[in-house]
Amino acid sequence: KPGVVLREPSCSIDMNGNEWEINDSIFNCDTLPPCNVKCTGPRKTRIKSASDQCGCTLEWYLHSKWMGSAVAFLLYVLMNMSRVFFLSGVTRLLWKWIYPDRFTVHATCDGDGKLITKIGGKSHQDLITTIQIQSSISKQRNE
């Protein structure tokens, strides 16, 4: 108990006395009693349990780092995929309200500027005309 130890006379030091003076630090080794320590060798069971614990801790650490990185990467990929699918769906549902009142059509033409490619039996000019008609009908409905 700390309270019992602190009440010992050896723990009460006079702060104004000579006990606080620093002496010349000369130490006489001959006055020490002999020390007879007998070592029985390493305790293999304790070393084995400590090394098993260290190995398990290292394995846990590596697995946790790998799993954390894998989950973070998976979350990044899934968030980007969901963003792409969400915006694709929103634009398909709300295209009438977000289009810029005209469409750009890429086509192939000859040197005179006439369209030469046909798609599904219709020429590009037919497709452009259909888009313009639908756009003007949609615009009239909104007005």
Protein described:
The protein has about 140 residues and is mainly alpha-helical. It has four helices and two strands; from the N terminus they run αααββα. The protein has helices spanning about 1-5, 45-95, 95-100, 125-140; strands spanning about 120, 120-125. It has a two-stranded antiparallel ribbon. It is rod-shaped.
Summarize the structure.
The protein is mostly helical and 143 residues long.
| CA gyration radius, whole angstroms | 44 Å
In DSSP terms (H or I, runs of 4 or more residues), the helix count works out at 4
Q: Give the rounded overall mean pLDDT.
A: 78
Helix- and strand-based class?
mainly alpha
Percent of sequence in beta strands: under 5%
Number of distinct beta strands: 2
Spatial strand sequence of the major β-sheet: 1-2
Helix content: 40-55%
Q: Major beta sheet, specifics?
A: 2 strands, antiparallel
Shape: rod-shaped
Order of helices and strands: HHHEEH
Distance between the termini: 91 Å
Please mark out the parts with pLDDT under 50 across 5 or more consecutive residues, or reply none.
Answer: none
Which terms summarize this structure?
143 residues; mainly alpha; two-stranded antiparallel ribbon; 4 helices; 2 strands; 55% helix; 3% strand
